[in-house]
Amino acid sequence: MEKIELAIVIVSLLIWIALLTLWGQFWQTDQQLEVTETHLEKLPSVCAVIPARNEADLLPKTLRSLLCQNYPGSFTIFLVDDHSTDGTAEVAQQTAQALNKNQQLHVITAQALPPGWSGKLWAMEQGINKATTILEPDYLLLTDADIEHDPVNLRQLVAKAEQENLDLVSLMVRLRCENFWEKLLIPAFVFFFQKLYPFRWVNDPQKSTAAAAGGCILIRTAALKRIGGLQVIRQALIDDCALAHAIKSVKSPSPPSPHLPIAPPPHSPKIWLGLSSSTHSLRSYPSLSPIWDMVARTAFTQLHYSPLLLVGTIVGMILVYIVPPLGLIVGALTENWLVALTGLSAWLLMSLAYLPMVRFYQCPLWLAFCLPIIAFLYTLMTLDSALRYWQGRGGAWKGRVYR
């Protein structure tokens, strides 16, 4: 029995050593939008598309932040009122009027949701169709109605895309982290996301890893057209990552060269995903329940609705996150100090990996040692996500259920 206990904690320790050294440095927080702007002969035109469903409370701040962007190029906003019942459209128009920027805002009333579309993507599709029909912008800024943008955010996004010839630039905006449950669970949400999609790998055109954060995505209109538009991901609940995968999977035509008799072969599209400390979400999570619902909405979707992957995920979460502290406790109680020391070593490596994200969110440093408890809660959320799916309640969000 002692040999089995030792073997299990050794496996957990080896996993953490491998994660820290071989897994794209996912634990780092250095992938951030830092741009040295250069003069552009022609400033690209941009249209923002905002799907909004019952967001009247947040729009006075979030929409204002977009209307007040200091981007010197052409910038127009298309807000799609997705069957709101709280006066979202009126609040949006009043916000633009207060700033004397009515001409910069177009409010669209969403049509009925057709079969085969998620509500958010259908609203975005209508906004994109209107924007590309009227203005034919160079870029589309896809953003959520709860995001308050830094005044220079759009300027930096465009500069990043233009300087590095990127098809898609996305920011994992700073999520709200003020009360107990937010401090306990929100940094870990971003940490687990980075573990699934190491940002360095996402940003490497030679790797197939692709991801984006739906709160803030700047995409070339030509790149969106090249993949067939949002139509190709119309049923996706994790729409941001599905969009990034579609963009990165389709080869881009290389521009012809006057020095070559034939055009060069297509090249892999380039995307970039990073963290932001200045553009942030105003969505609040006053208790455990809304965070639980946010994760349970798509966790089983991430596992492709597979019971086998669900079992593997639960076993993996226990082995990676729960075994280290258990090994320390059991080893200490049974005076098996080798097991205790190995468990402690794995726990310390785990905490070391989590520490940069805890510091990024300016949370108490002792929370880095709470990752086992946090991971246990996320495991329960994932299990609940599967139960909701099997009960026909999967993907519930803003009054809609996607079966």
Short description:
This protein has 403 residues and is α/β, with parallel strands linked by helices. It has helices at 2-22, 59-67, 88-98, 119-134, 153-164, 180-196, 199-202, 221-226, 239-249, 288-302, 307-333, 337-360, 371-390; strands spanning 46-52, 75-81, 105-109, 139-143, 147-148, 168-174, 216-220, 271-281. It contains 13 helices and 8 strands.
What is the straight-line distance between the termini? Answer: 45 Å
Low-confidence runs of at least 5 consecutive residues: 254-261
Tally of helical segments: 13
Question: What would you call the structural class?
Answer: alpha/beta
Kindly list the characteristics that best describe this protein.
403 residues, alpha/beta, eight-stranded mixed sheet
What does this molecule look like?
The chain is an alpha/beta fold and 403 residues long. The chain is built from 13 helices and 8 strands. It has helices at residues 2-22, 59-67, 88-98, 119-134, 153-164, 180-196, 199-202, 221-226, 239-249, 288-302, 307-333, 337-360, 371-390, and strands spanning 46-52, 75-81, 105-109, 139-143, 147-148, 168-174, 216-220, 271-281. It has an 8-stranded mixed beta sheet with strand order 3-2-1-4-7-6-8-5, sandwiched between helices. Helix 2 links the parallel strand 1 and strand 2. Helix 1 packs parallel to helix 12 and helix 2 crosses helix 3. The chain starts with a helix and ends in a 13-residue tail after the last helix.
